[in-house]
Amino acid sequence: MSSYRILGLMSGTSLDGLDIVDVLLSKVSKDQWKFEVLHAETVDYSEDWQFRLGNSANESGIGLTQLSHDLGNYFGDAVNDFLARNVIRRDDIAAISSHGHTVFHQPKEGYTLQIGNGPELAHKTGLLTVCDFRVNDVLLGGNGAPLVPVGDQFLFSSSAESFLNLGGFSNISFREKGTVLACDICPVNIVLNKLAEQVGQKFDNLGRLGREGVIDRDVLSRLNELPFYHEAPPKSLGAEWVADEIHPIIGDGVDLITTFYEHIAQQIAAVLTRHKLSSVFLSGGGAKNLFLLERLKSHYGGAVILPDSTIIEFKEAIVFALLGVLRLREEINVWCSVTGARRDSVSGVIHNPSL
Q1: Residue 43 parent element (H or E)
Q2: Is residue 80 within 8 Å of residue 87, measured between CB atoms?
Q3: Degrees to nearest 5, angle at CA 151 with 145 and 154
C-alpha cells in the first residue's frame, strides 16, 4: 500500500481536549509523504476529566489502572462519535494511531507512561490500533521524545528551516549538518494555563493577561538559570520537572504570567539563534497567542511562519497518524539523533481487535 486513511489521536499535557484527525497519507518518495486532512476536531475534556487527568500522577496503582481503562473507553466512544458524525465508513479506516495521555515521563529513570492506549480503544471501535510509541525508545536509552521530528521532515520539510510546537511544552526540530536534531525547550501552556486559572481564567486568550503585567526580573533570572536550559540536546521535559523546578520559583498573579511569557520567548529565541536558524514553522495552541508571538519576535529576527489553522491545531495528531503508518509498514519511525537512544527504532504497539 502507498496510501493509508488513518485516525490520529493526540491528548496533550495542557488538558485542553482530545484531538482527532481523519487523514489520508500517501507516500511520494523514500522520505516524503503528502497528506490530506479529511476531518478534524477537538473533543473538549469535561471538568471531571480535566481533574482526573490532572491528578493522575497521584493515583494509586489500582486507581491509575482504572483511569487508563476508563480513558481507553472514553477515547473509543469519542472515535465512534467522530465516525458517526462525519459519516465515515469504518471499513475505510486502516487504523487508529494514538499518542495516549502521558502520566509519567522519566526517561533518565528508564520509564514513561501513556494511558488510555490499550486494547480498550481497539475493541471499543473495532479498528486496528497503534499506540505506546515512546516506551521502546526509552528502553533503548533515549528520551522517548520528541517524536514529531519524523513528521516535520517527511511532511513539512520544504516549509522552513525549523519546526516549533507550542503546546504544553515547546519543542523544536531542525537539520544541522545533514542530521536532524530536536529537543524540548521549555514549558508553555502547562504553566500559562495554571497561572491563568489562579486569576479566574481557564487560559490566557490571545495573551491578554500577559499584556497587563510587568516583568519580575528576579524571577525571570531564576527561571533562566535552571540547569535544564544549559544542557545539550537531546533532552525532554515532563510535568514532574515543572512541579519540581518551575512551581517553587513562580507564584501567582498577572505579573508572573507576564514574566513567564518573557521566559518562554527568551528560551525559544536563544535556541533559534544559537543554531543560526533563519525561519521557524509554528504549530500548537500557543501559535494563536498573539502576545507570545510578539515577545518571540522581539527576541528573534528570523521569519516566523504560521500555517493554516488546521495544521496549527492538529499537526501533532497528523504526525502521530504518520508514525502509526510507519509502524504498520515496519519502517523506522523514531530517530536516535533526536531522542539520544542507542539506535533508530520501529516503535509502537499494535492491537488487533479481531485476534
Answers
A1: strand 32-43
A2: no
A3: 140
How large is the angle between the packed helices 47-54 and 61-85, nearest 10 degrees? Answer: 140
Q: What is the mean pLDDT of the chain?
A: 95
User: Distance (Å, rounded) from C-alpha 97 to C-alpha 110?
Assistant: 24
Q: Do the strands 95-98 and 129-131 form a parallel or antiparallel pair, or are they unpaired?
A: parallel
CATH superfamily for domain 160-306: ATPase, nucleotide binding domain (3.30.420.40)
The alpha carbon of 14 is separated from its chain's Cα centroid by a whole number of angstroms, namely 9
Q: What nine digits make up the cell of 131?
A: 499506540
- Beta sheet of 279-283, edge-to-edge order: 179-187, 169-176, 162-166, 279-283, 303-305
Residue 15 pLDDT > 90 = no
**Residue ranges of the domains in the chain?**
3-142+321-351, 160-306
pTM, full prediction: 0.91
Q: What is the DSSP letter of 87?
A: T
Give me the half-sphere count of Cα atoms (radius 13 Å) on the Cβ side of residue 209. Answer: 23
Mind listing the pLDDT tens digit for each residue in 318-330?
999 999 999 999 9
Residue 163: CB atoms within 10 A of its CB come to 29
Q: What's residue 283's pLDDT?
A: 96
Nearest in space to 211 (alpha carbons), one of 232, 196, 231: 196
Residues 130 and 329: beta-carbon distance below 8 Å: no
Whether the domain at 3-142+321-351 and the domain at 160-306 fall into the same CATH topology: yes
- Over residues 92-121, the mean pLDDT reads 94
In whole angstroms, give the CA distance from residue 53 to residue 189.
16
pLDDT at 1: 76
Q: Give the separation between CA 70 and CA 60, rounded to whole angstroms.
A: 15
Joined together, the cell numbers standing for residue 308 give 493554516
Residue 73 and residue 77: Cα distance in Å, rounded?
Answer: 6
Fold of 3-142+321-351: Nucleotidyltransferase; domain 5 (3.30.420)
